[in-house]
Design goal:
Number of domains of chain A: 1
Order of helices and strands of chain A: EEEHEHEEHEHEHEH
Oligomer: homodimer
Shape of chain A: globular
CATH class of chain A: Alpha Beta
CATH superfamily of chain A: Aldolase class I
Strand order of the largest sheet of chain A: 3-1-2-4-5-6-7-8-9
Distance between the termini of chain A: 44 Å
Number of helices of chain A: 6
Strand content of chain A: 15-25%
CATH topology of chain A: TIM Barrel
Helix content of chain A: 25-40%
Amino acid sequence: MTAARPAEIRVSELFGPTIQGEGVLIGLPTVFVRTGGCDYRCSWCDSLHAVDSRYREEWRAMSTEDVWREVTRLSGGTPLMISLSGGNPAIQPLGELIGRGHEEGYGFALETQGSVARDWFADLDVLVLSPKPPSSGMETDWDAFDACLRASGDKPLVVMKVVVFDEADYAYARAAAARYPQLPLYLQPGNHTPPPPEDSDAPIDIDGVMERMRWLVARVTEDRWFEARVLPQLHVLLWGNKRGV
Amino acid sequence: MTAARPAEIRVSELFGPTIQGEGVLIGLPTVFVRTGGCDYRCSWCDSLHAVDSRYREEWRAMSTEDVWREVTRLSGGTPLMISLSGGNPAIQPLGELIGRGHEEGYGFALETQGSVARDWFADLDVLVLSPKPPSSGMETDWDAFDACLRASGDKPLVVMKVVVFDEADYAYARAAAARYPQLPLYLQPGNHTPPPPEDSDAPIDIDGVMERMRWLVARVTEDRWFEARVLPQLHVLLWGNKRGV
């Protein structure tokens, strides 16, 4: 009789180190483990290649040790922050990886919409909950979101990040912030020109992103919403839609 | 006999709220009090209008109450973060202003090269020490820098920020980080096209800034310097050299 094979992690991309381009850890050198598969289908998803099962042939089923070997190679064995993103990384078995990395002094930040709670959220260093506003076409299940918060306990730094394309999204962000006043809040202007999944280096409307960023800054300051932090996707400004940087 | 007039603050600009464009508070809505006068003359200074005494006619001598009235007007009386910058704000009498703002729930972040220590540094919420690298043409007095650290005590969040134009600056930043391993470190690519003081909206070499940013990210990750955070001047990307935004 053979032992059960440990659960495998579906990985769409594994790259870095490069700087984190978004949110609370912006600018920090990071290795990215982008998992494949998502329970959402946001209209403006900028990582469809890691979401749509049409691209699952590009995903690799990796054991924790496979992933760990690759992270170690990329980082040269020097501890750094590892971003677990997706897709929705919460649907992957990542608890063992987090334990493995912590043994060696690495940190873990997970980014998820907050639709699936996992007990290993409590082992993270940073949990970024990114509920999706109306423009995504998705509906937020706040009970599931609350379950994610409960699962994280008091251990990781928990922050909220909301992508904003328009006034309806902005109103959603304000309501979300009012619901969770304890969570530091990051607003991020949306990118109307996400990369088509077949093209890993498609052109991007930088001027549009910057215009939306200026609008968002004006909106926040007019409303005297002084706790919100407004940040663009820095990697998009630096490298456009190019993957792996 | 009349009481001595309280010390006045020399103010070059007072504007906002807009987002903080740099460093640890990047993205946070902020009112900026830019003081006039500096004990340094960095070759690439991007705020010469607040440094060079040729522009002192534009500076206003304001009492704490004058400044406070203006901050209150700009913020609509809603507490937010106030950035004390310059020039070198450490040469201004700002202790009373900090006390006044704290009474009303405002926060204070001060940005200085670390050449002049003041006992009121301990009353700040955030102290950004920004020693100037070789390209500035200035020489760092580390004893004065140490005095700033001592003055701040354990109260404010103290971080270090170093502008980097070239390899010599980068080596300086590494040495500074090794000297103060306890300080979170922010690296910022330099702007080779600072605004001439006579022109508040001069063109800027954004491509050059972005190129230097990409170089800096590569440099940091090649060296596995994973604690350093690399951030551009976001306001420059959004608004160029324009003042008051």
